[in-house]
Every structure is written in structure tokens, then in C-alpha cells.
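Bit of a strange request maybe. I'm writing a small parser for C-alpha cell strings and I need a real example to test against, not something I typed by hand. Could someone generate the C-alpha cells for this chain?
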Amino acid sequence: MKLIAFDMDGVIFKHHNFWMELHRELGTLEEGTALTRQYVKTDYPRLVREVIGRLWAGKPAKPYFDLINKHQYVEGAEGAFKKIRKRESKTMIISSGPYDLALRAQRDLEIDYIFANGLPIKDGFIVGTDDMNYWKIKDDSKVEPLEEVREELGLDGGEVIAVVHDKNDIKLARHVREIGGKVIGFMFEPHEEVEKECTTIVRSNDLSGILEHI
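Reply from user aminoacidic:
Good idea to test on real output. This should exercise your parser:
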């Protein structure tokens, strides 16, 4: 058995940053971009507090669910996951993207485990909150869910594969290499910082391109 951990944005779905697209839909892109640049690396709870707790508080949830429904899978996603299941491997998503999108992928592609961030919604509106229990996954916290599932399955490090895409995956990729696993960089455009952490690069828009490496 192998455990294959996937990033979501740009790997399973075509888009690259769901939350920035939501900022655009909600009319908060300019301030949201500035807040992200200011706090994403230095004070993540502050970013959540400013965006979820203030900027999006009370906004209608319909644009969020519209984005969830309209986002498209990358080419070859359905076929790739079908072949992975036939090989009796376990799959998981670890993403700082929305839990509802990961849940859609889990249902459509029969993914075993999902770890992503939740957007609290009540009565059709976004709830303003700074509760970090909704927002557990960021760029330096993807290792914990991977290890949680690996321990549950009783797998050696060499049985782990991470399919990564951008800079948010660097720490996860480095960890997987350190435990003896394989890191596949699935990307069309080059990301030099990520590439140096990968054991294999698949330069493609078709997810089936990873199959020969797993």
C-alpha cells in the first residue's frame, strides 16, 4: 500500500488560488491582496482575523458556493484517481483551500482523506470569526495531517508520495524526502523553489502524467 498526498489548487483543480478568486467575487480583492502580502508569512491568525473576521463578515455565501460548483478538474483527474484506486493506494488532500471544495473532490474522485480550511457560514452568510479551528492548514502545517494518516495506516516513509505544486508545499515536500518518500512536482510553469525539493517533475496539464512515477 502507498499513501499519496495531493495539494488541491493547481493539482486537482485548474485554478491556482481559490481564496483570491473569492476576494474578486466579493469585491475585496485589493484589500485582501494587501492583507495577504502583509500577514500570510508573519501572522497567519491576524490574516484570518482581518479577512474572515472583518472583511468577509456578513457577506453573502452564494459567490463562495458558486465558485465551489464551477471550478473544473485538471485534465486526466478522474482517470488518474481511478487507476490509483485499482492499485490499492490511499489518497488524501492537504490544502489551505476550502474544505467544501475538497469535499466535492472526495465525493467525485473517491479520495480517502481530506484536510482543508473551513469557511463558517450561517443562514446564507459568511460568519465573521477568528477561530483558528476553522483554518488549520497553512504552508507550514501540512506535515501534521500527513503524519496522522501515515501513522493510522502503519506505513513506512518510503511508502509516501506527495504531489505538490507551489511554494506552500515546500515544507511538506522536504519532510517527505527526509522520511524516504517520493515528491512529484506537478506543474506547468516552473517553480524553482519547489522543484529543488522534488524527486520528479511532471511538466503537464494532465494529471495522468504522474501515474508512471507512482
